[in-house]
Amino acid sequence: MSTIDYLVLLATTLGIAAYGIWRTRGRQTFENYVRGDERVSWTTIGLAVMATQASAITFLSTPGQGFESGMGFVQNYFGMPFALIVVSAVFLPLYRRLRVMTAYEYLGHRFDQKTRLLGAGLFLLQRGFASGITIYAPAIVLSTVFEWNLDLTILATGAVAILYTVSGGNTAVSLTQKHQMAVIFAGMAAAFVILIHRLPANVSFADALEVAGGFDKLNAVNVSLDLNERYTLWSGLLGGFFLSLSYFGTDQSQVGRYLSGTSLRESRLGLMFNALLKIPMQAFILLLGALLFVFYQFLPAPVFFDRTTWQQHAAGPGGERLRALEERYAEATSTKRVAVEHWVTVSDQGDPALTAAAREAARAAHAQSEAIRAEAKATLRVLDPSVKTKDSDYVFITFVLEQLPRGVIGLLITVIFAAALSSVAAELSALGSTTVVDLYGSLRRARDSAPPSVLASKLCTAFWGAVAIGFALFARVVENLIEAVNILGSLFYGVILGLFLVAFFLHRVGGHAVFPAALLAQATVLAAFFGFDRVGYLWYNLIGCSLCVALSLLLQTVLPRPAGAAAPTSPS
Amino acid sequence: MRPTQPSAAVPPDPATGAEEPPGIPGLRSWRRVYAAVILGFLAGLALLSLLPRLAS
Predict the structure, then answer these.
(1) Could you read off the pLDDT of A141-183 as tens digits, one per residue?
(2) CA-CA 20 to 30 A from A364: which of A46, A75, A479, A523?
(3) CA-nearest residue of chain B to A276?
(4) Cα within 13 Å of Cα(A409), Cβ side
């Protein structure tokens, strides 16, 4: 990176953080620190909800996903619009009517304090770990590519997020997210335009789409009923619906975003903004990845996109095998380039039979080059079993560093930091709010009816920032960490969603039934996972949720209602 | 798109003064917005399904 890139990165990142601190300076009350100042418009809410969900790894990994596997990953988001409609129609009005600060406070209103603490505790457990990964995942990629010190990268990212989140609370998070999303949109649009511009002169945008389609990179919708297929229309609609309902409806990092709206209408519009635009945004990033694939059909592509790791091993013992494979790959991609260029030429001439034959020849050449790439990864793994050979996270960053002009590189690295900061800040704010409102606040209220102080809120947020940094610093010792955190989330998310579904829709079930039901469901999920882990971890979301709901109904029937307890009432 | 005004049925939201109809709060008053979102999703789904054919 050049000096101008570092200037763009530091000025933009620190400038937005300073803006958040400046706009929220002055006297703060506990309520406006935790909930926000309730002057937030729907555009800010919409962008903040989007920024919270899109972490740095979204912008590093998703183009790589499009490069490797095409656009099928977009199906994961197909259930989201429907989940957001349910959150907007059912969850949001009740949260606002009761003027709760956290989602778990609602469980206290609807059931009792112990159920509220259970929901808050499950959230803190899984989100506390996840916030460490939100910092660690981009830091590992950026420190590898730029040869930055990993610990310093983690500390710098965490410190900036802590600084403005602790200083300005929920309002600072929403305000900065709006500007961070503007930087993200500008950066991704610039990358897209430059990518199209850098294609060979005889390759139009339409030609690029045809090549991407010919290599099956544009197959976005898969209607297969095969359960072994990872991304299908059906798994996206059903699994995506439950995941999104749990995430947007019960995860305080999202609930905190839309509860800061001026009115119910602004909050709803913010959610509908995401229901309409999230899928097009993901499709755009995946299309960028598919076009990156096309781009590297015409230009020399590295055999392994994590160049730093490759070069270290190519220069070490046994490196001659890697260098030989690199040469074979260069020859194979050269042959493939000729085949793809021929395909584009005959396609422009409009002869369907010749075009089909040229396409098949290009596909055959691609299969040969991919076989060498697979051999290179296998050889790398033999030389160093600890190396991660999945290099798709490095595809986009390689393009950014090798193909974009000075200044724009800085803008794209800013995109990654902006995405990391926006997600981390929302997580820290949510963790701090939940700790101070649901744990500290409810314990304190037993003695004192006054709300906790702003200082207590700031200390709780700073504490979770320190936990996130600490976890990120030690994350490298855990093998396959991102999957580990996803598994952890799936083990707890289902039961949390079950608690809320019972609260919203099963009005006759009371706290005396739902609390043991949630504990039993959670114990069963954990026993199933550790005892006989036979199903994919995403299914634990559905299992946990269904068990919690079913057991609540059963226990409501068989357990005697506690003496003196009022009959359960409708929350609406 | 502006949502239609609901009829008074349950006490208004103390924060906003907004009134909601009975049943699932907001479903009636915002149904046109939700319908537009679902139609937008279906249109996008059709476009994504046709993308490989449109590109060839």
Answers:
(1) 888 778 888 899 999 999 999 998 998 888 888 889 888 999 9
(2) A75
(3) B37
(4) 19
CA–CA gap between residue A81 and residue A78 (Å, rounded)? 7
Pair A466, A485 in one domain: no
State whether B20 and A93 contact (CB < 8 Å).
Answer: yes
In the listed set A337, A359, A388, which residue is the last one of a domain according to the structure? A388
Residue A388's alpha-carbon distances to A305, A378, A380, A401, A481, in angstroms, are 12, 11, 9, 21, 12
Mean pLDDT of B28-52: 91
Residues of B in contact with A258 (CB under 8 A): none
ipTM of the complex: 0.84
Boundary of a domain, candidates A445, A476, A507: A476
Q: Does the distance separating the beta carbons of B44 and A88 come in below 8 Å?
A: no
Both A332 and A216 in a single domain? no
Tell me the whole-structure pTM to 2 decimals.
0.86
- Shortest Cα–Cα distance, A214 to chain B (Å): 8
| A82 in contact with B, Cβ within 8 Å | yes
Cα torsion A136, A430, A273, A50 to 10°: value is: -10
Q: What is the DSSP string of A24-87?
A: T-S---HHHHHT--S-B-HHHHHHHHHHHH--HHHHHHHHHHHHHHGGGGGGGGTTHHHHHHHI
Give residue A538's domain range. 478-572
* Among A269, A288, A89, residue whose Cα is nearest residue A185: A288
Claim to verify: residue A111 and residue A150 sit in the same structural domain: yes
Task: Tally the domains of chain B.
Answer: 1
Q: Is the CB of residue A236 less than 8 Å from the CB of residue A75?
A: yes
Beta carbons of B55 and A78 less than 8 Å apart: no
Query: CB–CB of B56 and A93 under 8 A?
Result: no
In a domain, A201, yes or no: yes
Domain, as residue range, for B14: 1-56
Confirm or reject contact between A264 and chain B (CB < 8 A).
yes
Q: State the count of interchain CB pairs (< 8 A) between A and B.
A: 95
